[in-house]
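Try this one yourself first.
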């Protein structure tokens, strides 16, 4: 299992929780870390309207240059 660890601020975590409320995509662990299933997120993202002005939620909050979609999970701490 490959996990990409990404350091985030509290505000970014709160925004991620508001943006993605599907537990099959994003879950919060007991220690406050957010875990994202990359395959489920990509499927979710592909279902969004394709507008250049509205990037997908994680890319809008974190930035798309940080994410490695080859990982199985993103861990936001």
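Now uncover the answer:
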């Amino acid at each position: 299992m490959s996990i990409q660890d990404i350091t985030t601020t509290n505000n970014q975590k709160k925004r991620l929780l508001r943006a993605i409320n599907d537990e099959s995509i994003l879950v919060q662990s007991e220690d406050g870390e957010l875990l994202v299933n990359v395959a489920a997120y990509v499927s979710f993202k592909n279902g969004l309207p394709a507008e250049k002005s509205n990037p997908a939620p994680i890319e809008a909050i974190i930035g798309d240059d940080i994410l490695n979609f080859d990982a199985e999970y993103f861990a936001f701490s």
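Discussion: The chain has three helices and four strands. The mean pLDDT is 91.
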